[in-house]
Design brief:
By secondary structure, this protein is mainly beta. Among the domains are: 7-55, no CATH class; 61-129 and 318-330, no CATH class. 2% of the residues lie in helices and 18% in strands. It has 1 helix and 15 strands, in the order βββββββαββββββββ. It has one helix at residues 100-106; strands spanning 7-12, 18-25, 31-38, 53-55, 74-77, 86-88, 93-95, 118-120, 165-167, 201-203, 226-227, 246-247, 258-260, 294-296, 325-329. The strands form 6 sheets. It has a 4-stranded antiparallel sheet with strand order 1-2-3-4, with no helix packed on it. The protein has a 3-stranded antiparallel sheet with strand order 5-15-6, with no helix packed on it. Strands 7-8 form a two-stranded antiparallel sheet. A hairpin with a 5-residue loop joins strand 2 (18-25) and strand 3 (31-38). The radius of gyration is 66 Å and the shape is rod-shaped. The two termini are 27 Å apart. It holds the Pfam family Collar. Residues 241-261 have a biased composition (Polar residues). This is Tail fiber protein. Residues 153-265 are annotated as: Disordered.
């Protein structure tokens, strides 16, 4: 430190056996020094104090003049261009010779350039920040970004027992077209059921009052008259009298006769149906005028609905913040 300094402060401890001295010089630059004292047996006033050590502060830092700068030190800058004595951390390949001190400090941690004459500067990706590491072997590698493991709660409020009103709009007066597909030439099977053992009754129509002819050959008067008059006296040589008149039966009045057929046992009758050829049937739906249809929704009881929260976001975990540039001293 210089022989003359602006200020000096001594800070003794509670037992006055130890102390701390701080000196400053504001004449030419802002510079600070510090030394400590430890009293012990056999020490002299001169040996009690340790040598002065200069303190480094950013007040002394000047990359342009390389005053008190450390090659490879990264600073954040609020301007749009890297200040003198620094390079933008954009991953560019720069000369190993021109920036020899910087190359000695960081080597090829951020890229070997062309492998011979250049090396790469750190590349600060858009929107990312610098993170601290306790593992020197990981310096120069990018983090993948992550947040603390967590879950999202989601719920939907119960709406209680309720129903929903449903309205079906009127479709206007209309009808619906319909058709039946052709089924090809075909016939339909039919059947009759069995009625058990039975007979059928019937009747004849009335034919008015009448008589029936009854031929016979006796020579006697006929009580109800006769049909024709062919009777001749005598007989034929054959002994067969065939010329007698035919008597009439007694009249029965206008009447009809009933009859019953014999039972045929339990049976059914076959019924056939002729084929109608390949055809379709016309179907029409009557028009019912403009109308709507009522609909109802049944109560589902008090309930809630499951909610799914979908993933969102990008591939990197980027904090919100104010954009500035990172620069590295050389």
């Amino acid at each position: 430190m210089p022989s003359a300094f602006t200020n000096a402060i001594s800070l003794p401890t509670y037992d006055n056996a130890r102390g701390l001295a701080i000196a400053s010089d504001f004449s030419s630059a802002n510079r600070f020094w510090m030394r400590s004292r430890h009293d012990s047996a056999g020490t002299t006033a001169e040996t009690r104090w340790k040598p002065w050590a200069e303190l480094w502060t950013n007040v002394n830092f000047n990359p342009a003049t390389k005053a008190n700068r450390i090659p490879g030190q990264v600073i954040m800058f609020a301007g749009k261009n890297a200040p003198s004595g620094t390079l933008l951390c954009d991953g560019a390949a720069v000369s190993r010779t021109t920036y020899a001190e910087l190359f000695a400090a960081i080597g090829t941690l951020y890229g070997a350039g062309d492998g011979k004459t250049t090396f790469n500067l750190p590349a600060m990706l858009e929107g990312t920040v610098v993170t601290h590491t306790q593992k020197p072997e990981t310096v120069g590698t990018a983090t993948s970004g992550e947040v603390i493991r967590h879950a999202h709660g989601a719920s939907s409020a119960s709406a209680g027992t309720h129903s929903h009103t449903i309205t079906v709009a009127g479709g206007g007066a209309h009808s619906h077209g319909a058709s039946a597909a052709a089924a090809g030439d075909h016939a339909h099977n039919t059947w009759t059921d069995s009625q058990g053992h039975h007979a059928h009754t019937g009747g004849t129509s009335a034919s008015g009052d009448h008589q029936h002819i009854s031929p016979f050959g006796d020579q006697m008067p006929y009580p109800w008259g006769q049909h024709g008059n062919r009777d001749q006296v005598g007989t034929r040589a054959s002994g067969v009298d065939q010329d007698n008149s035919w008597p009439l039966t007694n009249p029965a009045g206008n009447h009809a006769h009933t009859f019953t057929t014999d039972g045929a046992g339990a049976h059914a009758h076959n019924i056939g149906m002729n084929n109608a050829g390949n055809h379709t049937h016309a179907i029409s739906v009557a028009q019912v005028g403009d109308h709507g249809h009522s609909a109802s929704a049944a109560d589902a009881g008090a309930h809630s609905h499951a909610v799914t929260v979908n993933n969102t976001g990008g591939d990197r975990n980027l904090p919100a913040g104010l954009r500035m540039i990172y620069c590295i001293t050389y």
